[in-house]
Structure formats: structure tokens, C-alpha cells
Amino acid sequence: MTQTPTRSAARRRPTMVDVARHAGVSLKTVSRVVNDEPVGQELLGRVLAAIAELGFRRNDIARNLRSRQLNATVGLLIEEIANPFYATIASVAAEIAAAHGTMLITASSEEDPERERAVLQDFTQRRVDGLLVVPAGPDHSFLRREVELGMPVVFLDRPPQGLLADAVLLDNRGGGRAGVGALLDEGHRRVGLLLGAPSVPTMRERLAGARTALAAAGVEPDDALVRDRLIAPEDAGRAIAALLDSPDPPTAFFCGNNRLTVGALAELHRRGSDAALVGFDDFELAHLMPRPLRVVGYDTRELARVATERLFQRIAGDDSPPSTTVLPTRLLRRGLPRT
């Protein structure tokens, strides 16, 4: 499914000629400032002010062309390099970039909005040909001028905030609805919801899908059954323990990501609990877990492929309005049957 909003026409990126005209100095003076060569303080101040006002960025690719050292590059910003989900995205993006004669530069935001901003600004200053971004922060308007000036940017897994740009997403709401719906179809009415940070768009969508399923089944939402801001598997284990020890415990659980599912599995197995479990995200060796469960799965490679190919379409000159593509999820049975 693809959604296409309108987009204003891209503006021309400012050049050193524009900076020289704006500052009232010669092109040679601007060149000396840009290349860190000595100039007088008064001229330096005028050129730097013009650079800031116009949003000029030195084009390292153009400079390399003049020295016959061109290396086409694209930047990929992900959340955590060690996570298998992001490792797969990086691997697929690198394969496609190589097929286009381009090198992929990968960096991690560690879910830190300030680090995200710093890395993306560093990428743009290095004049990469385009950006692939798994966003961490709540505001990406700082990239607006770069996008308006022609920098291709494609977001994946999570949508941009405060910026009109291409995005390739998963059907998080539909997956959450299907996962909790399956538990309700089995007769469960008290379903514990284990979630990550509510500030993350994917988590909000998964919770919205879960609540849609509850409403469709005529089950009143119970905030006492919701635990959020969980990060590590151990957090999920403690949340499971607290909910199972409550006076009216859940008979089933829905986990918002695979790390939480792993923690929930460990605690349920430790207790010998037969509570039903559905988790968002498939994970390695899920089929060997010592009890049945279901996962909301999807094709990570396809997510990366669609996003990366879209980026190279933009780099090649596609100036159609930005679009949002939503890829499907599916409910899968995992784990070993009970004996």
C-alpha cells in the first residue's frame, strides 16, 4: 500500500557563487574560507554569516571530482548495529548500494535523538548522495532544508516527524490487531500488554492495533494490564512476574517486540505457566522455543530492499511526490508443541 502526499518543488542548492554575492566578496575569498585557508577576520565573518544564512554546504564530492577521487556514497542510520533486525537492513542496503556502484556508510543512533541529529548532519556535510534513516527522534525538521535542496532521504521502519519524505513502513497496527485478535479468538479476555517506549511510533501503532482488537471483541481496556517503557528482556520478565502475581492475572500476553518476547518466554518457562503468548517480530531459533507461541512476522529483507531501491530511484532523478509504502505482516506459529 502506497500513500502519496503533495510536495513543494525542490529549490536549488546554494553555491559558492551565491555565498560570494551574498557576502559581497570575491569567489576566491569564499573558496579560501571553505578550504580553511587564511583570510582576514572581517572577511571571514562576512563569509561565515552568508554560509549560515544560505545553508551552504561544501560539496566534498565535487571537490573529489576535481582531484579524480570520486566515491559515490549513501548514508544509513540505524538504531543498534548489533540487533539482527538492523544488521539485516544494513546487509541488504549494502548489497543494493554495491550493485549501483555506491558505498554504504552505516552509523548507529543508539536511540538517542541528539546523536541522530549529529550523525545525519555529518552525513549531509560529507555530501553523501542520499540518506536511509531509521529515525530515533521526535523531530526531523532539521533535514527540511537539505531535502528541499535536493538531498534524497528515505525513512524506514518508522515515519519521519516534521518532514515530508519517502517512508517504507510495516503494518504495525494491523499486526498488533491480528496478534491480540488471535488471543481473543481463543477465549482469552484478560490480555497483558508488554510494550516499549510510547514515544516510538511503531510501539504506539502496535498498541493501537491491540486496542482495536479488544474493542472489536467487546473487551473493556484495562490499564492495569499494560506495562510500557520496557527495554531489556529482564524488564519483560519482571513485568510478567508482577502481572501473574496480581489478584486477577492475565491468561495471555502480547509483547511489542522480540526482546520483550524473549524475556516473557523465560519467565513463563521458569514458572511453568501455560499463559498464551504472542510477540511482535520473529526471531532466530523461535521455532525451537520450549513451548508454543505465535509471532507477528514480516520480511525484513523486503523492507530494506524497497527502501533502498526507492532511494536510488530518487538519486537517479525521480522527483515525484514523496510516498509512504506499508508492507504486510503475518501471524506465525513458533515454538515446540507441549508434550
Automatic annotation (TrEMBL):
Q: Which residues form a coiled coil?
A: none
Keyword line: DNA-binding, Transcription, Transcription regulation
InterPro entries on file: HTH_LacI, Lambda_DNA-bd_dom_sf, Peripla_BP/Lac1_sug-bd_dom, Peripla_BP_I
Would you tell me the protein name for this molecule? Transcriptional regulator, LacI family
- HTH lacI-type domain residues: 14-67
Q: Which GO terms describe its molecular function?
A: DNA-binding transcription factor activity; transcription cis-regulatory region binding
Q: Which Pfam family is an annotated match for this chain, by its short name?
A: LacI
